[in-house]
Amino acid sequence: MPETEFEIDETDRQREDARLAALNSTGILDTPPEPAYDAITRLAAEYFHANSAAISFADEHRIWVKSNWCAVVRELPRKDSIFNLVLTQDGPILIPEVSTSPQGKALWPRIKHLNVVSLASVPVRSDGGSILGTLTLFWNKPMHEMQPEAIHTLENMASLVFSQLELRRLRNTLSKNKHGNRHSATASPANKSWPSEADLRQALELGQFELYYQPEVDLATRRIAGLEALIRWVHPERGLVPPIEFIPLAEENGLILPIGDWALAEVCGQIEKWCREDPCRVSLRVGVNLSARQFSREGLADHVEALLAQSGISSRQLGLEMTESSLIPNLRPALSVLGSLRRLGVSLLMDDFGTGYSSLNYLQSFPFDVLKIDLSFVQRMTEGDQPLQIVRTIIELARVMGMDVVAEGIETLEQYRLLRQMKCRYGQGYLFARPMTVGAITELLRLPGRVLPDPETDELAYP
Q: Which residues pair with 214 in a beta bridge?
């Protein structure tokens, strides 16, 4: 597993694989809150006179809160979580005073907004005994030791949670059997394309994914103003696998969520390392692409806020890039999520601008800081007046709306000169640098003033 979120002993890997398989079979992670779980949290809180309660599930990297009662418990990275304590204990945990207990020390910064003094948490187990999640109670006063009978009662309530999960799994199974692919029975395993879901899951577990970084350059000064993080799969046999070969499958089967969470955490950690090496890099913004599925799920802003706090970086150092196609189908929820992210202070970038819906009609609704002109427009600028006018219009539109512009896909000197003439501030493309490894981009950031060679006069040093 990648070490960004938590580590797992090799001897426990089979147990973790079984746990994740049981969790994924329920289909619970990528769903909105459900009243059935609210009834259980309410029952538990009232029975034990708790001030609040929550039901959470944990995948490879994060905690998914599916039900709150009274207080809102935020979704957080899995590291230093209540779930990990329960998993380590392989049973209930009781913390009489969270702020002073050795067990609760790491938890305290994450839950102090709840006015929590003490807590109790029991596992939600599968039929096979795997711990899928937790049912947790919070009190705003010190808790006396719970008697074994009381703990047993709370565990019985947690078993109600699994009963709801099992009903969900059975419904999903029946639905697939009824409406499944009619060709699946005749499909030949030999014709199955690579990669499979198992290949992707193994890649995540073995840490085969890697982030490459491509500079975003101030076109007037050639100074590196930011970076875009781009995921690559470094396969031991197939070599470097481009995203187009595995991201669509990850979107389809839901693995884009743990992969995306890993990438976000990895970027935040890398920004912290760069700033520790050179404090002058605090002005550097690193953009991460969000998939439609990541963007539409509950708790995105809370998760980003937790990662910022965990890494200690400034919110302005993180950029979140999303396309029009991930926003327009669910406009109202999208506006709510964007508003929450904007309040955190992170930079919001609209990627591939101009390739989706009626961009000009929707743009005023979205609180974006940066428009990224799709490379298809940039690379056609020299083919005639119409493509050139499109780019000029986007640049002017962004200027009027107070947004910055990044032109993607700059590959020739002619494109570079035209964009500078049109007062496009930032650019990105092979003319300056290809996406490169952490080590290579770190060396590039050590250039005096972070200024790249002039492509007009200097030989390209970073192909």
A: 228
The answer to whether 55 and 65 have CB atoms below 8 angstroms apart is yes
Alpha helices in 401-448 (DSSP H): 413-421, 438-445
> In sequence order, what DSSP letters do the residues of 190-256 get, joined into one string?
GGPPSPPHHHHHHHHHTT-EEEEEEEEEETTT-BEEEEEEEEEEEETTTEEE-GGGTHHHHHHHSTH
Cα 299 to chain centroid distance, Å, stands at: 10
In 247-291, alpha helices (H): 247-253, 256-277
Q: What is the pLDDT of residue 325?
A: 74
Q: Where are the beta strands (DSSP E) in 51-203?
A: 52-58, 63-69, 93-95, 118-125, 131-139
Element (H, E) at 40: helix 35-47
Determine the Cα–Cα distance for residues 53 and 71; give it in Å rounded to an integer.
7
Most confident of 168-182, 286-300, 308-322: 308-322
Ramachandran quadrant class, 129 (left: phi over 0; alpha: psi -120 to 50; beta: rest) = left
When pLDDT is cut at 50, 70 and 90, the band that residue 5 belongs to is very low
- What CA–CA distance (Å, rounded) separates 16 from 10? 10
The model's pLDDT over 236-264, given as tens digits with 9 standing for 90+, comes to 999 988 898 899 899 888 899 999 999 99
pLDDT in tens, 250-301: 988 889 999 999 999 999 999 999 999 999 898 999 999 998 888 877 788 9
**Stretch 121-150: mean pLDDT, rounded?**
89
Calculate the CA 381 to chain-centre distance: 34
Report DSSP letters for 378-412, one per residue: HTTGGG-HHHHHHHHHHHHHHHHTT-EEEE----S
Burial group, residue 364, by CB count within 10 angstroms (0-12, 13-18, 19+): exposed
150, two tokens? 């009381």
The Cα 100–Cα 108 span in angstroms is 9
DSSP strand pairing (63-69 vs 52-58): antiparallel
Give 339-382 as a 3 state SS string. HHHHHHCCEEEEEEECCCCCHHHHHCCCCCCEEEECHHHHCCHH
A 10 A CB-CB count for 233 gives 22
Looking at the chain, the number of H-run helices and the number of E-run strands are 16, 14
* CA 216/CA 224 separation, integer angstroms: 6
Q: In terms of DSSP bridges, do strands 118-125 and 93-95 run parallel, antiparallel, or are they unpaired?
A: antiparallel
Signed CA dihedral, 134, 135, 141, 144: sign only: negative
Bridge partner residues of 124 (DSSP): 133
